[in-house]
Amino acid sequence: MIASIDASLFATLAFRGWFPLWLAIAVAVVAFIGVTLLYCYEAKRVAVPLRIILGGLRILILCAILFLILRPTWLTEVRGNRSKQIAVLIDDSQSMTTRDPRPNPIDKWRSAIALDLVPPETALPENLTSTAVPEGTPNGSPQAPWPSRLDLAKKTLANPRLNLLQQLNERGPLQVASFGASRSTKDPRNPDWLSSFTGKQERTALVDAAMELLNRDENEVPAAIVIITDGRENASTKNLDQLARECQRLKVPLHVYGIGSSAFGQLQIRDVNVQDTLFADDVAAVPVRYRLKGFKEAKVDFIVKLNGREVVTKTVDAKDGDDLRELLTFTPEKKDVQAGKMELTTSVRIRSGDETFTDELAKSVRVIDRKLKILMVDSNPRWDFKFIQRGLLRDRRIEAKFMLTEGDPRAMTLGDVFIPKFPTTRPELFAYDLLILGDVPIATFSTEQQQWIREFVEEGGGMIHMAGRAHGPANYVGTPIGDILPVEVDSIKFVIDSGTRQEGFRPELTSAGMRSLMLSLDDNPVESLRIWRALPEMYWHYPVKKLKPGAEVFLVHPKEKTADNKPMPLMASHYFGKGYVMFAAFDETWRWRFNEADKYFYRFWSQVIYVGGVSRTLGTKTTQLSLDTPEAALGKTGTVYARLLSPDLKPLTAERIEARVERLDVDITDKDKFMNVELKALPGQPGEYIATIPFNRTGRFSMKVDNGTESGLLEYRVALPNDHEMAPGGLAEDEMRQLALATGGTFYREEDLSRMPETVKPKTTPFVQKQEILLWNVWAMVALICLFSLEWFIRKFNSMS
Predict the structure, then answer these.
(1) Which of 111, 411, 132, 84 is nearest to 253 (CA)?
(2) Considering the entire predicted model, what is its pTM?
(3) pLDDT tens by residue, 364-421
(4) Tell me, what DSSP letter sits at residue 519?
(5) 614 and 748 share a domain?
(6) Is residue 724 part of a domain?
(7) Which of 41, 100, 323, 348 sits CB 3.0–4.6 Å from 264 for a disulfide?
(8) Is 457 exposed, middle or buried, given 0-12, 13-18 or 19+ CB atoms closer than 10 A?
């Protein structure tokens, strides 16, 4: 340790009493004169020397009393320079208990240095191979498991050849503390001090711990701060940049020893947004969103399996990111077509050194072998009709026919795209999967054809009605077609081409609309919502009076209300019999093509058309489950939405429905494998149920709801939040390195630690040490008593009174 230098001693006498000094001097002078006169006139029998001695004693006693009344104090002051402390902060949070896999030879070599298997000053060998790693180095086997980060920190501090703390103590007096959620001082002189580190702190407030050392008088801040950590900061009130700026201002460098494997990282699939229905011999898109952190010089393998058969493989270079994306495509074959659902499994595998890390997500899909047959009927070729027609004709998954009630009759007979009239037989209509009705007058259909349309939907066909200003749905009130719509409307006539434009509006997504892939305009839900809020405005809609029981609303008007004072539906749907019916109260989606062509326009309509048309081809879903969040995080709660229908496809009316949640990745003997959840009916919304589920354990889960004839399944996975102490993740090397360099310090790995004591520069700071010694004490009283006694003895010895 560097001793204090240039120390100087200064001493002064001060008086702390209430009695003023000038008065004491005056009293002393008067006492001197009085005593002198008294002894001058003393009896002649007293010799002159004796009188002088006694007079002197009397004056000395009086002066001593006056001196003590002044409360004399002896002041000493030592001035000089002393060494500043070296602060050492050791991470004691839960993340330090992580046992990093160390597949790379360099990481094994580093653990060998910490474990004193390699001299700490040994240079890192070039072209290091596993054969050069010393015997006894942990290799991840049951006999030699990977050490935890905290174990390596303890071994490093106890390494006798490294002798780190003792060498640092020679640069300045050490101040050692642990930190996690809070800072706690440690005494390294205690032989058991390292055993107090247990890694139980639930949060890491690295910045706050360092800031505590800086929030002092500038002469008391440390010369340097040494931090031993994995850098998993997640609880401080300030950030790393603020800490760096404060260290720069106070000229306190941070020296960071980073603990953790360079090969350890975080891998998680966030979502696989694949369509529920895939078409044989047609390209299927599998957009994968995933999180990747901490892997360097690694490869990422993407593998997609359909019912166990590998259909996609792709390899890319690893890069860090919270929201990385990869689009995988494959073409389902006819042999993949089968009744019911199939499992599509998407795996992401990281290859780093000799180790691999894998995450996967499974979803249920169906593969169909034929094109959807669609009949689109309108009165005039409205703009939406024209652009939807173009998209359908280009779509290889669709076989479409078109009919215009007020179109050119000759044009209706040309080619095989248009049909001249509505199907005249029931089998002819029932050959289609989806009927799209536009602004068509009810007179287009005979009473029998209207009944056919109703039966077409009841038996599993899909129907979409796009409202218009002239005929539909105004003409449909009180007809079989009006009966199957999910909304109730009044018959209203609109003035066409009035020359006045109403106030513009943008449809707003409901919670169901946000959850539905049908209305997704981008693979990223956040970006999709942003697009919806930025789409060109519409200027017309058909007013809805009321929503029918069991109907589901996806889009609403931002201002208008229904008769029961609810947001006015602009897009709603429901099951009618076995079929699915959707109602769109607008006809201006063509405006979305401005500067974007079909990017949003046809994505929207194609998704709507697939949902409406596929139900008849595949059968009916009587249980529909969804979770309100794409990423379930430990410690939070989620909301499950359920739409439940009876076997005859009518909304269930029960007040409560029991559901069962199963944890998929634990053994059947686990006492927490199953959990019962109660779904409660939403008031005024028949068939709609809701339940809150806690995310209190990590893992894969499946919720099963049984409506009596069919079971619905919802699979989800609960993961650790990004900032959780035990969330997968390695050493935050880049952040810690930048922090150290920004403050004038250094970032160290095990091979660099032998240089740390030389790099940490000692500093001195001026100091002043003051001390007050009160002279009114027991020894002063003893001296005063001695003076009185001496005078009394002399007077008595000489027979004086």
Answers:
(1) 84
(2) 0.58
(3) 787 887 788 999 999 988 999 999 999 999 888 888 999 998 877 776 666 688 888 8
(4) G
(5) no
(6) no
(7) 100
(8) buried
